């Protein structure tokens, strides 16, 4: 049924760990070598005629980490038995015949600007490896597990984008907000440059509500004018050069990549201003919600407005933070094995309803939704059976992991507004037609940015890789 499973045979993994650590640092200079310019895969037709190709200047991904329940959000089943439909009712939306969960009233009002894909599916059932799949478009070599990040990992969306088309207008090609995603307290794989090295890593910011500027270190000091900063950069380069003979080559290259990114950020006034949330009116900040995820969505809008091609908002940063602080809504993740209805009703859905709807409305009001693709997705969905799981915290029932069918939401950049793609069965358990997968989401993102998803790039040891093996989700576009 599923169309793609990434091969991880030995021929693709011949480099040892030490070699990977070494070549990771070379990623920042590999474009200087002949033969490393991206080339199209020969067996893929040109996509310029595909719907939505090149319609997006930027992409915002809202990532519901932990596995958002399709039955209790985008795809309710009001006619199903109570043990399937759960405790919540469904409500009508601005699109006739399309219903959402009752605790998403503000999102229901902007449904006429959304396309809901209700037949997403894949074959991975654990958070770490499924998050890796969602972020890279490829299965992890250790499927249905929670592996740690590795230099051998495939690169995430933003890292590939930096490889094939680095940003010019802004100092960063990709930014992750309210990250990194943890499962539940260890960093999940698939969020960085992996085999491409640290020079291709997205910029990762955590809690953007701490202070007026999301990156306080970018605020210039009056006693350090630009000429002094450049002098310090030259001095640092000289010192690093003298020390490099005593440090492994990979570490030197990694440090140089990070230094270069830091000085680039510091040198650009538009970068500093883009991260300053205090420039937004209080009323608008309140509309998004004065919380980690809501303010991250507002910052995402500011960043794409400033020219960042790809911004990912992690909602929430820990997929099960509620186990540690059950009263701290900022820590609630979507991994709701138990207490799902209390967690969704009183913590997750009110803030999600507020922040996500504000993002759609704000982009639309500014005329930015026309050229910004917004993708809301998670790593999988939840099971179509409400049950208490004794191995997890909580006293009331919840839903297990479920990847056989789940939903995502798309908006902007040519996406057909007020539409639904695909359908799940009467229990919300399986798709009624051939499903779409994370690899197809990746193809859609790159195509929307005007980049052929079949493009071939090369890693630091000159091995070719296609951006992804997916297909553009063409039914999501207006004809």
CATH class of the largest domain: Alpha Beta
Distance between the termini: 27 Å
What is the general shape?
Answer: globular
CATH topology assignment of the largest domain = Alkaline Phosphatase, subunit A
Radius of gyration: 22 Å
The percent range for helix content is 25-40%
Query: What is the level-2 CATH architecture name of the largest domain?
Result: 3-Layer(aba) Sandwich
Could you give me the name of the CATH homologous superfamily of the largest domain? Alkaline Phosphatase, subunit A
Strand content: 5-15%
Largest sheet: 8 strands, mixed
Number of structural domains: 2
Strand sequence of the main sheet, in spatial order? 7-6-8-2-9-12-5-13
The parts where pLDDT drops under 50 for at least 5 residues are 1-45
Count of DSSP strands: 15
Secondary-structure element sequence?
HEEHEEHEHHEEHHHHHEHEEEEEHEE
SSE layout:
Elements: H1 17-24, E1 39-40, E2 58-64, H2 82-85, E3 90-92, E4 99-101, H3 105-109, E5 115-120, H4 127-136, H5 157-164, E6 174-177, E7 203-204, H6 226-243, H7 249-267, H8 269-274, H9 282-288, H10 292-306, E8 310-315, H11 340-365, E9 372-378, E10 381-382, E11 401-402, E12 406-411, E13 419-421, H12 438-448, E14 455-458, E15 464-466
Parallel strand pairs: 2-8, 2-9, 5-13, 6-7, 6-8
Antiparallel strand pairs: 1-14, 3-4, 5-12, 9-12, 10-11, 14-15
Helix pairs in contact: 1-7, 4-12, 6-7, 10-11
Write up what this structure looks like.
The protein is an alpha/beta fold and 479 residues long. The chain folds into 2 domains: 10-215 and 282-476, Alkaline Phosphatase, subunit A (3-Layer(aba) Sandwich), CATH 3.40.720; 216-274. 29% of the residues lie in helices and 13% in strands. Helix 1 (17-24) packs parallel to helix 7, helix 6 (226-243) packs antiparallel against helix 7 (249-267) and helix 10 packs parallel to helix 11 (340-365).
């Amino acid at each position: 049924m599923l169309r793609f499973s990434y091969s991880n045979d030995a021929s693709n993994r011949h480099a040892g760990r030490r070699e990977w650590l070494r070549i990771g640092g070379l990623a920042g200079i590999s474009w200087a070598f002949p033969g490393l310019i991206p080339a199209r895969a020969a067996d893929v037709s040109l996509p310029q005629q595909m719907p939505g190709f090149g319609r997006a200047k930027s992409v915002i991904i809202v990532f519901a980490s932990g596995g958002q329940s399709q039955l209790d959000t985008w795809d309710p089943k009001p006619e199903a038995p109570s043990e399937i439909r759960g405790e919540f009712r469904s409500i009508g939306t601005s699109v006739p015949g399309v219903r959402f969960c009752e605790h998403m009233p503000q999102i229901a009002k902007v449904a006429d600007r959304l396309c809901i894909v209700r037949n997403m599916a894949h074959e991975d059932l654990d958070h770490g490896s499924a998050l890796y799949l969602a972020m890279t478009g490829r299965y992890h070599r250790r499927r249905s597990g929670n592996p740690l990040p590795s230099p051998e990992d495939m690169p995430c969306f933003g890292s590939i984008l930096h490889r094939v088309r680095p940003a010019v207008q802004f100092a960063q090609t990709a930014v992750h907000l309210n990250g990194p995603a943890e499962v539940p307290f260890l960093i999940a794989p698939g969020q960085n440059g992996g085999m491409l090295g640290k020079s291709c890593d997205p910029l990762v910011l955590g809690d953007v509500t701490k202070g007026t500027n999301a990156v306080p270190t970018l605020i210039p000091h009056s006693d350090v004018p630009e000429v002094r900063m450049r002098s310090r950069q030259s001095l640092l380069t000289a010192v690093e050069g003298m020390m490099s003979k005593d440090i492994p080559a990979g570490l030197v290259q990694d440090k140089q990549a990070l230094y270069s990114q830091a000085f680039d950020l510091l040198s650009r006034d538009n970068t500093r201003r883009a991260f300053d949330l205090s420039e937004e009116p209080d009323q608008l900040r309140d509309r998004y919600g004065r919380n980690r995820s809501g303010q991250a969505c507002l910052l995402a809008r500011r960043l794409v407005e400033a020219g960042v091609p790809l911004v990912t908002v992690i909602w929430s940063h820990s997929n099960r933070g509620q186990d540690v602080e059950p009263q701290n809504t900022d820590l609630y993740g979507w991994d709701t094995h138990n207490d799902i209805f209390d967690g969704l009703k009183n913590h997750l859905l009110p803030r999600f309803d507020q922040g996500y709807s504000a993002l759609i409305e704000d982009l639309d009001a500014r005329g930015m939704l026309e050229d910004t693709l917004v993708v809301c997705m998670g790593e999988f969905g939840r099971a179509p059976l409400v049950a208490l799981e004794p191995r997890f915290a909580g006293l009331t029932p919840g839903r297990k992991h479920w990847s056989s069918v789940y939903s995502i939401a798309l908006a902007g950049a040519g996406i057909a507004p007020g539409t639904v793609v695909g359908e799940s069965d009467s229990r919300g358990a399986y798709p009624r037609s051939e499903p779409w997968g994370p690899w197809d989401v990746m193809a859609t993102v790159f195509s929307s940015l005007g980049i052929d998803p079949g493009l071939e790039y090369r890693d630091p040891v000159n091995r070719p890789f296609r951006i992804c093996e997916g297909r553009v989700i063409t039914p999501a576009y207006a004809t």
